[in-house]
């Protein structure tokens, strides 16, 4: 580092009231720890289980058959529907609800999903200890409409999955679902003004069924965390013990259930869990409680803050939370205000670890972000200054809770808060005080290999009976809606969405309608905005898409219609996104994670950076984004939208 640069950086920290020498030491350590974890193969260091025949069994549905699944052919008796929704998670349900409010009859839409029931990620993930890390009064959508009161401050997985079913029943879409069914191909048909769709249903114990249907409209709501990934390790298929991915938890191996996480079958077992991210943080305390011995394999420690879980007090909930009409939107707006700008609101309604982490403006977008490349270094310096108190607090929490200083040191995270999704838990850190728990810290390297009966890290071999991969999912922010659903989408004039977006990026208005792919409603986050609460993103875009649909239908006066954004409008919107993109540039230089494509963002050539900046998230935060789209709706002319009959 240039000495003059060091002096100016130190002075910059001191100007912010921070010990400049200490801040520079932290910054230096961030760089050192990042360098340990960078790999030239990037995302190729993982195996996507959905794209590999050898590893596909890791994503088999352990819950298939627990709910009735309708035959695909019986659900499309005339091989058509008005609206096909790809995805049966909360995003798909919210699109269904908002389209029903816009005039679509429940019987005229179909929701398809490869799962065997509603819930999306909450269908697949049923590991012990699973709960949402966003406050349930914010996270669970439609609470005012359903009158539902969450049982805990942070809802557990079973409750969230049941709530998805409650929404499906309340809005009469439970009978519109076609589960264990996947769209393989979408092809635009100009003659019929709709989409030709190839569906394949694979039900356990039955031969696959293929059905070609016509749908006038399609909504792609495939979620973000769909496909489990594994480290590309030597020996995974050679291991002879029990082995599974955390998103397909095998209770026949561990004992217990999500309802009763008594993992009694592990009492004589040596268990290894690979990973220390958000999933592992939640299930490790349960594994430690029941296993004979637990080995926790860590490549990068998570920054784990307090969660302060508690049951919901009904009197408090109705008096302080659900006190008036519009309470949930008001609460969410206040939640977002804590990381939309460095200036904190006077009142903190949620008062949790998210709202204590102001520097997450780097993740959610900052209305006061840099306006030019020249301002970027000072902006990142400012973010790191803001983040230092949280960094110190979380480090101090580890030192306070974990008794062994050497273990505590290994559990301390060295990266800014925005580089990985923050974690919160009340029991994770204290788990490492147990005699039957061993932290296997690989100092950024990860495991070396598996043998028939062991995991191997460095020069040490650990014989184990059960291996659980808590290694996450295919990165959620890359690829098109086609890749997210493992299908092909061919639009006007034979244009492939995968090829077009790879060349030029998406061409949408407000992130919901692409110019070359009419009658497809998208769910972002490309050219839209981002909240830590992904369901709020989905609902915001579902409302917007439903408005566009209803207004287009009104203008079509009962005739079949095609709705798409205009070429001029999408170009203007891309420029608007690009103008705000620098607020998201703090991800450059982060420790590898799915946020920065395992470090690949730093390697993007200059000629591709322009496309990336036009394709990303609205850099001024979700409330500012919604201000723009709500003003657009209020104006009423549907500027930038073309409706053809």
TrEMBL record:
Signal peptide: none
Source organism, top-level taxon: Eukaryota
InterPro entries per UniProt: FAD-binding_Monooxygenases, FAD/NAD-bd_sf
Coiled-coil segments: none
GO molecular function, one term: oxidoreductase activity
Record field: transmembrane: none
Cofactor: FAD
Alphabetical keyword list: FAD, Flavoprotein, NADP, Oxidoreductase
Family statement: Belongs to the FAD-binding monooxygenase family.
Listed name of the protein: Related to monooxigenase
Natural source organism: Phialocephala subalpina
């Amino acid at each position: 580092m240039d000495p003059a640069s060091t002096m100016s950086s130190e002075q910059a920290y001191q100007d912010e009231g921070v010990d400049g020498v200490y801040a520079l030491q932290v910054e230096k350590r961030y760089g050192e720890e990042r360098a340990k974890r960078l790999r030239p193969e990037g995302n190729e260091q993982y195996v996507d289980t959905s794209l590999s025949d050898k590893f596909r069994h890791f994503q088999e549905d352990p819950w298939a058959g627990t709910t009735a699944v309708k035959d695909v052919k019986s659900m499309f008796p005339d091989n058509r529907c008005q609206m096909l929704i790809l995805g049966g998670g909360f995003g798909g349900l919210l699109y269904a609800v908002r389209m029903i409010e816009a005039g679509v009859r429940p019987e005229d839409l179909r929701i398809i999903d490869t799962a065997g029931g509603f819930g999306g990620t909450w269908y697949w993930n049923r590991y012990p200890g699973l709960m949402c890390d966003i406050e349930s009064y914010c996270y669970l959508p439609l609470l005012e409409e359903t009158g539902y009161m969450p049982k805990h401050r942070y809802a557990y997985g079973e409750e969230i999955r049941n709530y998805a079913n409650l929404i499906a029943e309340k809005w009469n879409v439970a009978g519109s679902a076609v589960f264990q069914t996947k769209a393989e191909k979408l092809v635009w048909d100009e003659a019929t003004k709709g989409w030709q769709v190839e569906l394949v249903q694979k039900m356990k114990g039955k031969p696959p069924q293929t059905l070609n249907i016509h749908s006038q409209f399609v909504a792609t709501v495939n979620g973000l965390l769909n496909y489990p990934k594994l480290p590309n390790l030597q020996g995974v298929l050679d291991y002879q013990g029990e082995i599974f991915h955390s998103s397909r938890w095998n209770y026949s191996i561990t004992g217990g259930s999500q309802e009763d996480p008594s993992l009694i079958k592990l009492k004589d077992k040596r268990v290894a869990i690979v990973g220390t991210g958000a999933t592992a943080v939640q299930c490790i305390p349960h594994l430690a409680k029941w296993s004979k011995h637990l080995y926790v394999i860590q490549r990068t420690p998570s920054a784990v803050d307090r969660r302060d879980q508690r049951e919901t007090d009904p009197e408090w909930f109705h008096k302080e939370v659900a006190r008036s009409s519009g309470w949930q939107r008001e609460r969410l707006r206040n939640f977002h205000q804590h990381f939309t700008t460095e200036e904190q609101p006077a009142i903190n309604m949620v008062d949790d670890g998210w709202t204590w982490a102001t520097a997450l403006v780097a993740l959610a977008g900052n209305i006061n972000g840099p306006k030019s490349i020249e301002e970027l270094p000072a902006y990142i310096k400012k973010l790191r200054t803001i983040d230092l108190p949280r960094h110190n607090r979380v480090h101090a929490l580890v030192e306070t809770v974990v008794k062994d200083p050497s273990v505590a040191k290994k559990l301390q995270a060295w990266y800014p808060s925005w580089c990985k999704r923050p974690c919160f838990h009340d029991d994770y850190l204290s788990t490492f005080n147990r005699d039957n728990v061993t932290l296997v810290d690989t100092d950024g390297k990860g495991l070396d290999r598996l043998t028939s009966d062991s995991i191997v890290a460095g020069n040490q071999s650990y014989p184990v009976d059960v291996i659980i991969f808590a290694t996450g999912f295919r990165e959620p922010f890359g690829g098109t809606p086609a890749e997210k659903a493992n299908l092909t989408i061919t639009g006007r004039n034979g244009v492939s969405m995968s090829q077009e977006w790879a060349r030029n990026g998406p061409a949408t208005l407000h992130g919901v309608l692409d110019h070359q792919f009419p009658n497809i409603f998208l769910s972002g986050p490309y050219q839209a905005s981002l909240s830590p609460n992904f369901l709020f993103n989905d609902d915001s875009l579902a409302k917007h898409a439903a408005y566009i649909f209803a207004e287009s239908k009104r203008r079509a006066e009962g005739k079949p219609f095609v709705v798409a954004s205009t070429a001029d409008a999408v170009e203007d919107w891309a420029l608007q996104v690009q103008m705000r993109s620098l607020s998201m540039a703090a991800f450059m230089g982060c420790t590898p994670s799915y946020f920065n494509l395992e470090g690949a963002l730093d390697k993007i050539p200059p000629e591709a950076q322009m496309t990336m900046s036009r394709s990303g998230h609205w850099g001024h935060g979700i409330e500012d984004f919604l201000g723009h789209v709500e003003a657009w709706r209020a104006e009423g002319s549907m500027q930038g939208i073309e409706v053809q009959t």
